[in-house]
Amino acid sequence: MQSIYQRIEELIKERGMTKKAFCEQLGISTGNFGDWKRGKTTPGTNKLIEIASFFNASLDWIMLGRDVQGEALRESRDPYFFGASGQLDCQGESLSEVEKGFILEYIEFTRFRKEKKQEGSTTE
Asked: Domains (ranges, CATH) in the chain?
């Protein structure tokens, strides 16, 4: 039976990210992550919820390797926003690199407009 660490490691590999990037994005020290690997400690409840949300995986699967009914289950969704923070909860067909770039550029543009709008309202 897999440990919690092994299931988290599987999610990291499926996402195609490094363990270091995973730790940075979720604010986990590499020392704590190493302790999980050695079985010295396990992630706390809040961190498990954050990890489940990050990977769109069920807590039951991360903690037990199964769903509530006891069948092996893990939710699957396409990983959107390509390792960037602010992952959206959506599914769809795979996007090309050009399409991904366009979406990220549009998000940046939208953030910029929002900031400018807020700056304008504070100077009035």
From this structure: 4-77 (1.10.260.40)
